[in-house]
Design goal:
heterodimer, A: about 375 residues, alpha+beta, Butyryl-Coa Dehydrogenase, subunit A, domain 1, Butyryl-CoA Dehydrogenase, subunit A, domain 2, Butyryl-CoA Dehydrogenase, subunit A, domain 3, 3 domains, four-stranded mixed sheet, 8 strands, about 50% helix, B: about 300 residues, three-stranded antiparallel sheet, 9 helices
């Protein structure tokens, strides 16, 4: 057991910091204060990600045979943490490099790899994730969207909901039912401009581009667009989401927000004992989340089975994110209400989704009770 | 960064756990509020575990690993301060008690061969003199005593050593609290598995599962923060780990008692041994305000 960064990892942090200094424009915060799926951030990501790729920071952890540099997944995690802290200038493209690309490397045909991986490495393609449905949220296996076989192709009918980035996405990583059994599900990689797909934005607290409904009416999908074998979608999803064991490193932006809020209080000479207790407590909660996330990442790096620490890490992230959001409301409500520091309000907007996006925190509690404490079924 | 124990750390923990094995079971009959084991204290001293931080290749992290584990035994014996602070004080004999001021109850003072008296930035080290210690009767499950004045043999440490002692004292609290919380939670979890009500075990109710799961998060976080603080051995990390534990323990204590029902109110049920030790740690070293002030001054330059 040891808690240090290697000299190479420290150098990488410096490199990323220097890159951000050089490539985030003056008005970046006003862009970043919009949702990651907003037109402004999406457009920015298409300028930013190619530069990130050129600097070897977009997908360096991908194997060399697929155009990466075979770097450690720790390196990719460090980059992801620092980019989230900066307001996520990759916009929706973190999906691509984190898990959609790796799933295509593992299960895709040569043609699929050829078609998709190059675009992702270039950094100018947006994907969305067609998972949740009106009656399949936490209980994802209850999804109803069907892909019926018709000769060499499928006809897809159904509806997705809460789909982030859908309006501006070129492709969807879509789950659809291909059999009667609960888990007879397949994955399809479909272009979003295909006839029969309708996207409707849903106004959301997080902002424009965050939530959508996606309707699929008699959408024709080719067999060659199916990822992996028919009916093995659940395995593909498990494989893909294993790369996302810990979700977004939200504590990073939370800590930045906390530091700003404290500076504001100090500026008005109002950082007294009460505020110090609240600030230091929120800080320790963020550090707890950070160390547990690192532990879950470390387990994944070693391909060790998840001992429950990933669920514990996810829960810690939600707790920390909300503790910082509450600190802002308690001690600097003017920063939440006003527009002087847009990133503070933005942090708050993102915090409300922390316990929901990517899986409800209560599901993590179920998993901890079962897998860590041995309670229940 | 590596979260698994190294092979040397594994060997250390395996042999430590086998020493503790004999001190896992409760004594037969009532043990009162406090359960201190002179035998365990003696074995700790004789085995060399108290000196682990001074051993080649080991340091404060290994001392914290032992402190966390030792705290899970129902039997109290002083290890955390001896193992973490001892190596900073040439030739100081354990058990070591840490007094955060004079006149206040101090854990393990009646047993201590060395006492560190922390007064602001200054740290005094002394051997308690016979008759100078007032034994304190407590529900707190630690043996306690109070020093009314500094012993005549007290020596003031230099500023650098004083700072190091204060830092290690906080790490000792954080590691001990993490172990106490782990043991209390394990006991409460076992109880809800065994206890049948409404035709099923209490642990089958989701309302109870979720609250215990929240506590599992607390325990895990407190452990990791304590161990990282020990590895870093700096004041800010130490105060932050200590603060996390002092914040989180109140929920854990409440929930563990709540789910143990009236059994948890009895002295024969060992839960109080961990929760009432925790209650003494909750306000130690200035409590949350004390730790927060240290974190705020280190991170944000607050005064």
């Amino acid at each position: 057991m040891e808690f240090g960064w290697t000299p190479e990892q420290k150098a990488l942090r410096q490199k990323v910091a220097a890159f951000l200094d050089a490539h985030l424009p003056e008005d970046w915060e006003s862009i970043a204060s919009q949702s990651p799926g907003s037109p402004a951030v999406t457009e920015f990501s298409k300028q930013f990600c190619p530069k990130l790729a050129e600097a070897g920071l977009l997908a360096s952890h991908w194997p060399e045979e697929f155009g990466g540099a075979g770097a450690s997944a720790w390196d990719h995690f460090i980059v992801g943490e620092m980019l989230w802290e900066a307001g996520e200038p990759r916009g929706p493209q973190y999906y691509n490099v984190n898990w959609i690309g790796p799933a295509i490397m593992q299960y895709g045909t040569a043609e699929q790899q050829e078609q998709h991986l190059g675009r992702m490495l270039k950094g100018d393609v947006i994907w969305c994730q067609g998972f949740s449905e009106p009656s399949a949220g936490s209980d994802l296996a209850a999804l109803r969207t069907r892909a019926e076989r018709e000769g060499e192709s499928y006809v897809v009918n159904g509806q997705k909901i809460w789909t982030s980035y859908a309006r501006l996405a070129e492709f969807c990583f879509l789950l659809a039912r291909t059999g009667a059994g609960k888990k007879e599900i397949s994955v399809f990689l479909i272009p979003m401009d295909r006839k029969g797909i309708t996207v409707r934005p849903i106004d959301s607290v997080v902002g424009d581009g965050d939530l959508h409904e996606v309707f699929l009416d008699d959408v024709e999908v080719l067999e060659s667009e199916r990822l992996g074998q028919e009916g093995l979608g659940w395995e593909v999803v498990r494989y893909a989401l294993n790369f996302e064991r810990v979700g977004i490193p939200r504590y990073a932006l939370a800590l930045r927000t906390l530091n700003r809020t404290v500076a504001e209080l100090q500026g008005s000479a109002s950082f007294g004992e009460g505020a110090q207790i609240a600030a230091a407590s929120a800080h320790s909660a963020c550090e707890a989340a950070r160390i547990l996330v690192y532990e879950a990442v470390g387990q994944r790096m070693k391909s060790s089975p998840d001992t429950g620490v990933a669920s514990i890490a996810r829960l810690s992230v939600v707790r920390a994110e909300n503790q910082v959001a509450d600190f802002v409301l308690d001690w600097t409500p003017q920063l939440f209400v006003g527009d002087e520091q847009p990133m503070v309000a933005t942090h708050h907007k993102r915090a409300i989704s922390a316990g929901i996006a990517g899986g409800a925190a209560e599901i993590q509690l179920n998993l901890i009770a079962r897998n860590v404490l041995g309670l229940g079924a | 960064m590596d979260f698994d124990l190294s092979s040397d750390q594994q060997l250390l923990m395996t042999s430590f756990e086998s020493l503790l094995e004999a001190y896992r079971a409760l004594p037969v009959g009532s043990h009162g509020y406090t359960l201190y084991s002179k035998e365990l204290q003696g074995e700790l001293a004789a085995s060399g575990f108290l000196d682990v931080a001074a051993a080649e290749g080991f340091g404060p992290l290994e001392a914290a690993l032992l402190a966390e584990e030792a705290a899970t035994s129902p039997y109290g014996a002083e290890l955390a301060a001896s193992a973490l602070i001892g190596p900073l004080l040439d030739g100081a004999e354990g058990p070591i008690a840490v007094a955060w001021g004079l006149g206040e109850p101090v854990r393990y003072l009646p047993q201590a061969r060395t006492v560190c008296i922390i007064q602001g930035d200054e740290v005094l080290v002394a051997s308690p003199e016979t008759g100078a210690i007032r034994e304190v009767d407590t529900v707190g499950a630690y043996p306690m005593g109070a020093l009314e004045k500094a012993p005549s043999n007290a020596a003031t440490l230099d500023a650098k050593t004083s700072a190091a002692v204060r830092c290690r004292a906080l790490i000792a609290i954080a590691a001990e609290a993490a172990g106490l919380m782990r043991a209390a939670l394990e006991h409460a979890v076992q109880y809800v598995k065994d206890r049948q009500q409404f035709g099923q075990s209490l642990g089958a109710f989701q309302a109870i599962q979720h609250r215990l799961a929240e506590n599992a998060q607390i325990v895990r976080a407190a452990r990791s923060l304590a161990f990282r603080a020990a590895w870093r051995d700096d004041e800010c990390s130490a105060a932050s780990a200590c603060l996390y534990a002092q914040n989180a323990m109140r929920k854990l204590i409440h929930d563990c008692h709540q789910f143990s029902g009236a059994m948890g109110l009895t002295l024969e049920f060992p839960l109080h041994l961990w929760t009432y030790r925790l209650k003494l740690l909750q306000g130690e070293a200035g409590g949350r305000a004390g730790q927060a002030a240290l974190v705020a001054s280190n991170l944000w330059g607050a005064s």
